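Lesson 9: reading folded outputs for more than one chain in a single document. The general rule is that every protein is listed as its sequence immediately followed by its structure tokens, and records are never interleaved. Here is the first one.
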Amino acid sequence: MKAKPDSIIQTTAMRGFKGKIKALFYIAAALTYSLLPKKLVQGLDLSKVTPHTLPNHAQQIPTIFVHGFRGGLTTTEKMVESAIEFTHQADFLRVIVDWRGRIRYQGTWTDNDNPIVQIIFEENIASMRMHSRWLELVLPTLKKRFGFVKFNAVGHSVGATALLNCLLENHDDPKFPTLNKVILVAGPFNGVIALGDIPNLNPLTVSGRPLLMNPHYLYWFFHKKDFPKNAKVLNIYGNTDTGFNSDKYITVNSAKSVNYLLRDTAAVYHEIEVHGLDGEHSVMHDNPKVLFIINNFLFNDAVVTEAVSETPLLNETSVN
């Protein structure tokens, strides 16, 4: 049998060697992936987010929407849809946070001046402070990933109180973006009916402070000077006009009590009381009148007290 030339033997050996190297590379890569912390492996679902490599997002001011207790995708769905339509955008980014604080993305961070971001907490029956902690993870992560400096926020119910708590506790953290505007909708700032509050039994003093303060409110009271000084605030709350002075779950006084906390620190503070069926707690986040008010405040810097309706939305108050 004729022997193969040395060159052929060397080439064959080299191919075999390269094949082994390639196989080892893939094995090493797989092992490396399997050994990564779960937070890194599972926390970012890149397959569901449109990648962006724009050189600078610093001028963008995104708006984040935060749902409340037992809320979810549908809670802020109408808010998100109306904001997209109002700003003529084609898509939005959904940020989903699981109970461990792991984050994954769906949708698109748009090139618009005001990208829309919907935040969803999978563990939607967690406490206000837990929601606040998750926001502490989301906001710096979004800032680092997309490069913006300022942001707007809209919170409904416990989402409003979680936003307030997060803003007060992280006011001096450079990793956080700077608050530009915040809209608080139906916020239970001094308790929920039957859970620390009773209709018509805890009046506001002449100064606007609740006669009785629950632990959360008392904590915010001692930290109220930490609220971002250049931020603009719009507080929207409901009154079904059934004699209980509430939106069915949150009393007017509980929702209004945030005025006392923020009015001296915020650059601008407005509040609007929505009456009748339009002012029911779970109706407000879908109500076209309320959505019109929200969008005009966010994107036109205007406070609208008479949305598209023959019935005015009464009791608008402006401070500063």
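And here is the second record, again sequence then tokens.
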Amino acid sequence: MGRYPMVLFGILFMAYLIWNHMSDPDRPISVNKTAVDRGRELYAQHCGRCHTGGLSPIQAMPGSPGAGPNLDYESRSIYRLSDAELLATPKSGTHTDDESGKRAEMTKQVEGLANHQIRDILAFLKSTWPSDGRLEQWVSSHTAQK
């Protein structure tokens, strides 16, 4: 076998590994600088209108139909969600029973986002959590998998 087919095979194999890694919905959400930076931008564009507070440069209109909870440090209930639950929340619009109008608005905001973009938003959110919040969420994620 010549050199060209081996190089081509190597490139295709690497592309497959990258694609497989990017498309795996069960892998943990990685909090790295690149993902956090992309997530910060996406959060401002898609989430900040309704989820205000210390995380968003955008101020939502009080009483707007889709106004969601503040997702900063004070929102401790978010730490109890596993990575799988965090990933499902934007697409379903909720992780608890709340008004259907809020669910509909939230799902519209993420409609055009790919899974890796939602993961970036969640990486940004996780980067704002204190260490005890990250630990609590890590435990939730790992006990939910068993």
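What the second record shows: The two ends are 46 Å apart (CA to CA).
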